[in-house]
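Q: I'm building a small set of examples for a reading group on sequence design. Run inverse folding on the following structure and report the sequence directly after it, with nothing in between.
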């Protein structure tokens, strides 16, 4: 029987324990794979420019920048990796937007390990994968709500990111640092998202995000 072809996996997560756990699991499940982990978007881009990776596991919430931004930037490479988003977020709009930006698959961090392995195999084959429980939740929600939308679906990708950052109690200055934006730009995004959603102030933003799986 022919051995599986070698390939490279890049892990991008700002938590050292998660990186170590993923690395150990993936090396055991895919002995033919070279697994490299990085803790920031900047490190990930340096690594991805040096080596070609078939798969990149990208945490959506990273310390230096958003994983959604990294997903977009990785796709500009001459030979971009196929991206699997890995996140605790289970909100439908968040998942769909991440995949619209270029992620091929989406796995929640509380999914069993075999789902991550399945996602990697599917993605390598050029197919998409969404965690089974998440896919079922979306189907059930679609049946219940029909075509009715939620107010955060009106937001741009950047406004959605700012909304979620504010829901964590961060100041405009902190949000600006995390998203590599100026405080003035963040203030404009906050004004626009409040206008679009009708939310007024941090307390309402926090309650809304908690009730809709965004925080």
């Amino acid at each position: 029987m022919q051995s599986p072809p070698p390939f490279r996996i890049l892990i991008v997560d700002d938590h050292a324990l998660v990186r170590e756990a993923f690395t150990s699991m993936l090396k055991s499940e895919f002995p033919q794979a070279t697994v490299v982990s990085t803790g920031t978007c900047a490190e990930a881009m340096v690594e991805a420019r040096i080596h070609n990776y078939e798969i990149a596991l990208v945490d959506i919430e990273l310390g230096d920048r958003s994983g959604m931004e990294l997903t977009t930037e990785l796709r500009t490479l001459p030979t971009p990796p196929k991206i699997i988003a890995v996140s605790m977020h289970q909100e439908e709009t968040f998942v769909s937007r991440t995949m619209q930006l270029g992620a091929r698959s989406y796995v929640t961090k509380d999914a069993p390990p075999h789902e991550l392995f399945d996602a990697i195999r599917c993605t390598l084959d050029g197919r998409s994968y969404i965690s089974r429980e998440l896919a079922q939740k979306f189907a059930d929600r679609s049946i219940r709500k029909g075509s009715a939308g939620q107010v955060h679906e009106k937001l741009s990708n950047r406004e959605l990111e700012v909304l979620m950052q504010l829901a964590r109690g961060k100041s405009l200055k902190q949000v600006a640092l995390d998203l590599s934006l100026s405080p003035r730009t963040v203030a404009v995004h906050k004004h626009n998202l409040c206008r679009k959603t009708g939310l007024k102030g941090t307390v309402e933003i926090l309650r809304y995000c908690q009730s809709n799986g965004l925080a």
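Residues 150 and 212 are 9 Å apart (CA to CA).
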